[in-house]
Automatic annotation (TrEMBL), chain A:
Keywords recorded for this protein, A-Z: Glycosyltransferase, Transferase
Domain Phosphoribosyltransferase: 9-158
Pfam families listed in its UniProt record: Pribosyltran
Protein name: Pyrimidine operon attenuation protein / uracil phosphoribosyltransferase
Superkingdom of source: Bacteria
Amino acid sequence: MQKKLILDTDLLDITISRLCQELIENHGDFSETVIIGMQSRGIFVAEIIHKKLEKLTKKDIPFGYLDATFHRDDFRRREIPAKASETKIEFAIEGKSVVLVDDVLFTGRTIRAAMDTMITFGRPKKVELLVLIDRKYTRELPIAADYVGKSVNTLTSQRVLVELEAQGHKQNKIWLINKD
Amino acid sequence: MSKLSQKHLLGIKDLTSEDIELIFETADNFKEVINRPVKKVPSLRDVTIANVFFENSTRTRLSFELAQKRLSADTINFSASNSSVKKGETLLDTVNNILAMKVDMIVMRHASPGAPHYLAKHIKANIVNAGDGTHEHPTQALLDAFSIREKLGSVAGKKIAIIGDILHSRVALSNIFALQKLGAKVMVCGPPTLLPKFIGQLGVEVEFDVRKALQWCDVANVLRIQLERQQIKYFPSLREYSLYYGITKKLLDSLKKQIVIMHPGPINRGVELSSDAADSQHSIILDQVENGVAVRMAVLYLLAARP
């Protein structure tokens, strides 16, 4: 198994800071914006970004997380069914700008399911997508991210492994793994 | 684990404690779903479910039907009272005819114990037992245990007394299996004529004094006297039963402790449970009904995941 480091702690800090600045540029004081992290692994990235944004803007920004399992298009097609996680959106998203946050954008199918799940809570004014890693040339649906931490050329057979301190790892490290 | 060990839900007896945990965790998510502005998910949109009821039911059938609709399944309802069963058709023929119309799942209630088990041997569709005679009523036991878990944080180590007509109750048997698998202590309480002779062999405590049972337990699950299943008289009169085994607010208050009152419905107010007890702050009866939809959604979803 070959492993290649894509982002380490220092680079990740810089990337997150840049993403936050980009968000502030577009959303100002975040009075009309909410942040929603994607279950299960996107919530850790979302939490880091949310904390940093609150620090930078000195505002309370609504934060929730969303599980898209029940809206997936591969139900009854997988050998082992996907396991659902908790959804927690304790604010209205009607008329708001939503920034959806995930760790890795791959086929785009999870994001499709997430958007369907989201509109069961209301009709947002606008939805944007932020991803830490954008895997190029692997999309199966016409979906693109508005904010990208790092674009990576990958093969479908490769895997992106995100290790964050928030998930209990020693250091923040993001790897590209070749499956043999 | 994100997969049930079983293809059917015939009884709690066949489930592992991991299966029950998986159903509960999935039901947690569905409970959140049914409290959203749009209470529906598209998961089962290409699944057709037949609700085949050979015995009367209001709550269970409504709850199943609602669970199916919230999952976007197509449903058809069948009740024996206005069907060809009256013309002499066999159970297997009836079900095979329904399945010939491309039905994926059967939810069945039948007066004969073992009817869904028999069907499971002969047909391919997933089967959910919605009550078979005096044998099992698995989804009721799951929602009861789920409600205890929700109210008290967990089921393990808790003391649960099942009070009333144990002899004719499928809810009692399924509850005993479910609660024991989750690590709870179970007691049954009722008049000796309404307790099966060898019930103690299931590892439950047996008590004839309702006051002692209430003093022992954290949760009392009160069952209805099933007059429709009683061909002979098991006690002199309903008034006498109510006098000795009826639970009133006065009795609950005199215990001077926290206690949770449950009832699978329908309640015979003034017989096994007085109105002031059923409507008191001890009662979680309506929470049970709400949880019933979420738990049934979880069961249908997890079974549909393995066609």
